[in-house]
């Protein structure tokens, strides 16, 4: 089977204002915006900013606004970042004060619905290696991997079974 090509979308972070320190008590503005959008593998975000930078960090550095060890750093004022895998991406301002004011964002990237599912039916989480501290590279992904799928014959059997159970319930209710 040939994979199905999926379309991608480019999102403008912060709208006309761009990637800037939030004003007043609007410390969740970027996360509120991210929660209202659906991001898929292949989509991209465009950060426009002045006298600042965009850092891709791990979850812990995101929570604490740590700018010392970014996974990626961009400071060109017009950054395009393409999502190349599903999971959570953590973005913060390179200015710690801006980050603490809310110039940070978590984006959850999903598997694109038009992409063909993997050939295996399910993917189990890999066991933790002995001595694993739980700290990883910052690309926190879903614990169970990509969603599994049900074949047509399994779906037909399940559908017939459910229909039979519902029919028996209706018959019992009508004649009782």
TrEMBL record:
It is a lipid-anchor; GPI-anchor. It is found in: Cell membrane. Residues 116-138 are annotated as: Disordered. GO terms for cellular component: plasma membrane; side of membrane. It comes from the Eukaryota. InterPro entries: Cupredoxin, ENL_dom, Phytocyanin-like, Phytocyanin_dom. Belongs to the early nodulin-like (ENODL) family. This is Early nodulin-like protein 21. It comes from Actinidia rufa.
């Amino acid at each position: 089977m040939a994979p199905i090509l999926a379309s991608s979308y480019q999102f403008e972070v912060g709208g006309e204002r761009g990637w800037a320190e939030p004003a007043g008590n609007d410390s969740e503005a970027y996360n509120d915006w991210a929660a209202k959008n659906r991001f898929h593998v292949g989509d991209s975000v465009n950060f426009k900013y002045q006298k600042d930078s965009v850092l891709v960090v791990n979850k812990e550095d995101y929570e604490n606004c740590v700018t010392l060890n970014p996974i990626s750093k961009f400071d060109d004022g017009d950054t395009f970042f393409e999502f190349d895998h599903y999971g959570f991406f953590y973005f913060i301002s390179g200015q710690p004060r801006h980050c603490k004011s809310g110039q940070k964002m978590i984006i959850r990237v999903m598997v694109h619905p038009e992409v063909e599912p993997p050939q295996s039916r399910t993917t189990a989480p890999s066991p933790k290696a002995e001595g694993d501290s739980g700290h990883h590279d910052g690309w926190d992904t879903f614990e169970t991997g990509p969603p599994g799928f049900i074949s047509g014959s399994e779906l037909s059997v399940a559908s017939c079974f459910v229909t039979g159970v519902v029919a028996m319930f209706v018959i019992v209710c009508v004649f009782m």
